[in-house]
Each structure stands twice: as structure tokens, then as C-alpha cells.
Design goal:
Layout lengths: L1 H26 L5 H4 L8 E6 L2 E6 L3 E3 L4 E3 L2
Antiparallel strand pairs: 1-2, 3-4
This protein binds calcium ion (CA).
Length: 73
């Protein structure tokens, strides 16, 4: 049972670190994926930064989910 307890503690420890990291990110300024150019928005989409994430919106005249936009009309 010692090893099971040990691994559970390790998991809890890792969970704690991850939780702290996530909470830290919430407390700090959000990463602007659009400015960092780490977004995967289509070239014909507008990148919109949001807390903890970002949105991709096809430009007017284009349709799609933001990752893929096609000219229409
Ligand atoms: Ca963001």
C-alpha cells in the first residue's frame, strides 16, 4: 500500500502544481495569443483575444469557423 500511497501523493502534488499554475495564469495578465502569433486563425479571419483563450472570426465576406474561412457572395 506504501507505493500506492506514494503515487497518489505524487499525483496530488502534480495536481497542486498545475492548479497553482492555472490559478496564477488567471491572476496574471492573459496571454494575447493574437499578439504572440500563436493563434491558428485563418489568414482571412480576425483574431480576438479572450481570457485564457482566443476567438477566430472570419472577416466580413468570409464564412467558416475562423480556422477555415472561405470567401462567399
Ligand atoms: Ca488569451
Amino acid at each position: 500500500m506504501g507505493s500506492a500511497c506514494f503515487s497518489r501523493d505524487v499525483c496530488l502534488f502534480i495536481l497542486l502544481i498545475n492548479t497553482c499554475r492555472v490559478m496564477g495564469n488567471v491572476g496574471l495578465a492573459d496571454a494575447d495569443e493574437c499578439a504572440e502569433d500563436s493563434d491558428d486563425c485563418h489568414i482571412d479571419a480576425l483574431c480576438q483575444n479572450t481570457p485564457k483563450s482566443y476567438n477566430c472570426i472570419c472577416k466580413p465576406g468570409y464564412t467558416g469557423d475562423g480556422r477555415q474561412c472561405e470567401g462567399c457572395c
